[in-house]
Amino acid sequence: MSPPQKQEFILLSDILGLSLLVDSINHPKPPSSTEGSVLGPFHTHDAPTLELGSNMSGDEAGEPLLCVCTVRDTRGNPVAGVKVDIWETDSSGHYDVQHADRGAPSERCVMVSDADGRFWFRGIRPVSYPIPHDGPVGKLLERLGRHCWRPAHLHFMFAKEGWDHLITALYMRNDRYETTDAVFGVKASLIVDLDRVDAATAKEYGDPQLEGAWLLRHEFILVSEEDTAALRDRNAVEALAKLGLRMRLVDHLPVPELD
After folding, report:
1. How far apart are the first and last CA of the chain?
2. What is the pTM of this model?
3. Helix axis angle, 8-15 to 18-26, nearest 10°
4. How far apart, in whole angstroms, are the C-alpha atoms of residue 119 and residue 114?
5. What are phi and psi of 157, to 5 degrees?
6. I want to staple 82 with a disulfide (CB 3.0 to 4.6 A). Which of 42, 160, 233, 247 is the partner?
């Protein structure tokens, strides 16, 4: 019912909005930080760790893209040594794991931010694509009168000890599915504009042939585990109060207030 190429159970959670709801409860974000998005069913643990500036795509049919990113904290300080998982589809709208003849991983990699919190890589311009819809999830979408398409995006996952785990994505502005994402992943703060690489930028990043490629610049803001835990507790207390329940938290768990 749910082979690796489809992951029906994860897709079901995604199209019902449950994945995003759980993430927003477990990983609340202050206004100044990068919001989360859905993990999706196609992240893997075999992505190669590449040097900064490497090309993670073997898709020659895709439109070349240079991504230049920085990781900072909520005070604007760079965060070095962050493990960053990055993945996207190929130009046909398929993740590598959806191909039966998949060999080495493609359109995915792991990088580590440098001393200035920077990481940069080459890939291809993301394309919109349909989630697998020839199984139970597709039938449910059809019954609900909903389409199965996702807007063009790049996935990112950030991990470093002491920092709240961040799973997010960047969505290309003006995609036709920007406001009707089948899995509710799009948030206004995650919609980005693309530019073109000029000669100076191509030279700066060591490859004159990059001139004319698509360019994406973005700054990701991480939150400490301590700040996230405090915000999560505050949200829990406020939610319980709205239900008329007098509770206090002990080790992050609700305990009734006794007179």
Report:
1. 52
2. 0.92
3. 80
4. 7
5. -140, 130
6. 160
CA distances to 44, 141, 213, 230 from 15, rounded to whole Å, are 20, 8, 33, 30
The CB density around residue 88, as the number of other CB atoms within 10 Å, is 29
CB 29 within 8 A of CB 223: yes
Q: What is the largest CA-CA distance in the chain?
A: 72
Segment 148-193, tens digit of pLDDT = 999 999 999 999 999 999 999 999 999 999 999 999 999 999 999 9
Write the DSSP symbol of residue 96: G
Q: What are 79-88's pLDDT values in tens digits? A: 999 999 999 9
Amino acid letter, residue 169:
A
In angstroms, the Cα distances linking 63 to 29, 143, 163, 171, 205 are 33, 36, 34, 16, 18
Please tell me the distance from the alpha carbon of residue 20 to that of residue 245, in angstroms, as a whole number.
Answer: 26
Domains and CATH numbers, the chain: 8-223 (2.60.130.10), 225-258 (no CATH)
